[in-house]
Design a protein that fits this description.
Chain lengths: 659, 171
């Protein structure tokens, strides 16, 4: 019954997307407002139908209706309810259903929020976006149908992948990443619409930038949460391993970030239209490439879903989108490019933005090549190789440093020409701050050129950012003589977008510092304890107090109780564990992390022998890891602030503000 | 039509699509499991210390071959488990061998000095042995029985229980 109803909903959504695509494009071409309304209505229908199908799938999962193929694949009577709910995205077909649903919501949201704006261009955009909707609904209706009826009906299922049952972050990381990926459809469609209608003015660009900020914020959050999940669950003590699937989420983030900056030049200087639109298109195309990497089984990764027939279909879609975008761009880019760009020589701020764009694009190609190279090599030589971490670290380190340097230079300089003397005056204090930080690090006997450069440049960029945040408040306070609180809140509310940008920058600096410190200065201590034994690790004293057993419906776990003292003070009892899932052979460990602002104590159980009361752990002391998660939070906060429209009303009146 | 944009776009996208399409025929996870039940490809390699080891001379006792690298994080996860297992199964005559994969021997020596070692690691010149074993990435661990047949291949890190259950279950 659910099978039939779910499938029907998807077919309704597929029809709505098809009709919406055609009416949207025709309305855009003919500038026909009434026809445009049709595509809007179809977007609402699509959202309702996909929402209903998600509801049915969740119902089937929660009622353990094993007649539905997807439930038979990932459901189990033993799993706890929260795992059952999130197992919607624990396997391929469910995740594509989730994708369609989110796309439906984005379509409806876009249709609703733009109902009174730029009729012809929004119709084009809606038409293109719904065309992408057609593909995903087609997948769910056809080869990735999660609603397929199973016969004979099994009495129980295997349950979702144990790694995904291990941690509560599994509830938020995948949806956040999906929101980032799916949401990129809208700015892409808006870019195509600009090309198709030959219209890319300041207002449309501002729209595009805001529609990019939403998925970009979710993507940033998703990436950081993914790292956190991997850190808390996988037990190797790191958060980023340049795994193909991690790279897949990072690639669109890089071009999306480049777009957010290049759009500011286009708005300010009325140039680089073609480049800005290319970036927005590349961002979406990279999300599709990323999805292909995760779903096709071509790349070997801890994150990949099992191989499925979806790969070739996805590749065909990727090919069509890539080639279609290239053709569209080539055919129409001259229509949106002004004949003569305003050229006032090399303004340093502008140059720093251009460099920023080059660096981000270069970063993207570096990661892309490193990810695809093993496949290329295998295709040519038949040898399989893994590029591994050394390549990525060596190649991306210097690019990252240059980007951090520009994060200081760009915001500090005013638009237009600046004399060398003035430039030096502006940058002197921040540069001094950076040098002082390097001095302090050297004083603390920290070594490593790249690490010290990261700390120094981050200090420089942070000083610029804080100065940029403080000086308007200072100026307002002096000019108006209001209280500090009043000055801060007034200036902050007036320039929300600018402050959003600054907060995002601080978040990135936190991540850079945390990442480098956590990678460069980690110490590893593989130790074996017998019961009651105490050992010193860094400033900690660890005492193994024995094992404990825990039996839940879906797993049996052995916990090691470890008492942690620091400087004679009892800190906590931590319980790294090994989980034996009933339906899996291998035990899976859950590491335990004791976090402070300055360092993490990371314990991963390697082996717990209950009979002999002996346990072995991999113990790491990792400095400043917490800064990474904090930085991720700041990035989300900043992008929300930058997204909220200014209270001054319509978009046309908003001032262009630089981050 | 802007031919420059078109040209640049085609130069970037077409090769990318071609590479991705070529990946379909070559799924490493499916192909390499086909080795189970086959005779283990022979090799004669030098250890980090300069001794020669030939697989053919180890016939008659089980052999565990672990492909690893210093840059490989999952390898670090399984490192202690492999050391413990090697010590546990040494009395039973099981030989453990590491094969260094795409890495510098000097790095490996430093790494093993720091993390400990219980069995020799071999230098795989030109990656010949890794190719013979169809190694797709590290770590991969091959369990070879006394007859010289690959009984089991583990992709990704192994742990104590896995190693002992595989070795105990081997003919």
């Amino acid at each position: 019954m659910i099978s039939l109803l779910g499938r029907t909903c998807i077919l309704v959504a597929l029809t709505a997307c098809s009709v919406g695509m055609v009416t949207g494009m025709v309305a855009g071409k003919r500038q026909d407002i009434d026809m445009g309304k049709w595509s809007r209505w179809m977007a609402y229908v699509c959202a309702i139908a996909t929402t209903a199908s998600i509801g049915m799938m969740e119902y089937a999962l929660l009622t353990h209706d094993f007649s539905v193929a997807y439930v038979a694949e990932v459901g189990s009577l033993d799993t706890p309810t929260w795992v059952t709910i999130v197992s919607l995205w624990s396997s391929l077909n469910g995740s594509i259903l989730l994708w369609s649903w989110m796309l439906g919501l984005f379509l409806a949201g876009f249709a609703y929020l733009t109902r009174n704006q730029h009729q012809a261009t929004t119709s084009w955009a809606l038409g293109v976006a719904m065309g992408i909707g057609v593909f995903f609904c087609f997948l769910v209706a056809g080869i990735a149908n999660p609603f397929e009826a199973v016969s004979p009906i099994p009495t129980d299922g295997p349950g979702p992948n144990p790694l995904l049952q291990n941690h509560i972050l599994m509830v938020v990381h995948p949806p956040s990443l999906y929101l980032g990926f799916v949401g990129m459809t809208i700015p892409f469609a808006m870019g195509c619409a600009a090309l198709l209608s030959g219209r890319l003015d300041g207002a449309w660009l501002r729209h595009m930038r805001r529609w990019m900020l939403v998925p970009w914020g979710f993507l940033s959050l998703g990436i950081v949460l993914g790292g956190w999940w991997s850190y808390e669950v996988l037990g190797w003590g790191g958060w980023w391993a340049w795994d193909p699937v991690e790279n897949a989420s990072f690639l669109p983030w890089l071009t999306g970030t480049a777009f957010l900056h290049s759009a500011m030049i286009t708005q300010r200087r009325n140039k680089l239209q073609g480049w800005t639109v290319s970036l927005i298109m590349a961002t979406f195309l990279l999300t599709i490439l990323g999805t292909f990497m995760t779903r096709s089984g071509v790349f070997n990764s801890v994150h990949s879903f099992t191989q499925s027939s979806i790969g070739p279909v996805f590749l065909a879609f990727l090919g069509a989108c890539l080639l279609g975008s290239v053709l569209l761009l080539a055919a129409r880019v001259d229509k949106i490019q002004p004949d003569q760009a305003t050229d006032d020589g090399a303004a340093p701020k502008e140059t720093s933005f251009l460099l920023n764009n080059l660096l981000f694009t270069g970063f993207m190609f570096t990661v892309l090549i490193g990810t695809v190279y093993p496949l290329l090599n295998e295709a040519i030589t038949g040898k399989q190789i893994s590029v591994g971490q050394p390549y990525f670290d060596k190649m991306t380190g210097p690019i990252g440093l240059a980007i951090i340097f520009l994060m200081g230079v760009g915001p500090a300089l005013p638009w237009g020409r600046v004399s060398l003397r003035r430039g030096f005056q502006i940058l002197a204090f921040p540069l001094a701050s950076g040098i002082v930080i390097v001095g302090i690090c050297l004083g603390m006997k920290l070594r490593g050129g790249m690490a010290l450069a990261t700390f120094g440049l981050s200090g420089f960029a942070l000083a610029v950012t804080l100065k940029e945040m403080a000086s308007p408040i200072l100026a307002f306070h002096q000019a108006n003589g209001k209280t500090w609180l009043h000055s801060i809140s007034t200036v902050f509310i007036q320039s929300r977008r600018r402050y959003g940008g600054h907060i995002v920058h601080i978040g990135i600096l936190c991540i850079a510092v945390g990442h480098v410190a956590g990678t460069r200065y980690t110490t590893a201590h593989p130790l074996t304890f017998s019961a009651g034994e105490s050992k010193e690790v860094g400033s900690y004293t660890l005492t193994f107090k024995g094992t404990e057993k825990q039996i839940e419906s879906h797993r049996r776990s052995v916990l090691a109780n470890v008492l942690v003292h620091q400087n004679g003070k009892e800190l906590a009892v931590v319980q790294p564990r090994l989980n034996h899932y009933i339906k899996m052979n291998q035990p899976i460990g859950t590491p335990q992390v004791l976090s402070t602002l300055t360092e993490d104590l990371y314990l991963n159980a390697v082996n717990i022998d209950e009979a002999a009361n002996v346990a072995s752990f991999d113990i790491y002391i990792k400095p400043l890891i917490w800064w990474i998660w904090f930085g991720g939070g700041l990035m989300l906060l900043g992008s929300i602030l930058a997204f909220i429209p200014s209270r001054r009303g319509t978009d046309g009146q908003e001032t262009v503000e630089a981050a | 039509m802007n031919w420059k944009v078109l040209g640049a776009g085609v130069v970037v996208t077409v090769p990318l699509l071609a590479i991705l399409a070529s990946g379909f025929g070559l799924n490493p996870r499916v192909e390499s499991n086909a080795l189970e039940g086959q005779a283990a490809p022979n090799f004669e390699l030098e250890t980090l210390e300069g001794d020669r080891v030939a697989l053919s001379e180890l016939r008659g006792k089980p052999v565990v071959i672990n492909f690893w690298a210093t840059w490989c994080q999952p390898c670090l996860i399984e490192h202690q488990a492999l050391i413990r297992s090697a010590q546990r199964f040494a009395p039973a005559g099981v030989t453990f061998l590491g094969v260094l994969y795409n890495d510098e021997p000097a790095e490996a020596v430093r790494y093993l000095k720091k993390k400990g070692a219980a069995y020799p690691t071999l230098i795989d010149v030109n990656g010949r042995t890794a190719i013979d074993y169809g190694v797709a990435g590290v770590p991969e661990t091959f369990f070879i029985n006394a007859e010289g047949t690959i009984a089991y291949k583990a992709t990704g890190p192994v742990n104590d229980e896995m190693v002992s259950s595989i070795l105990r279950g081997m003919p």
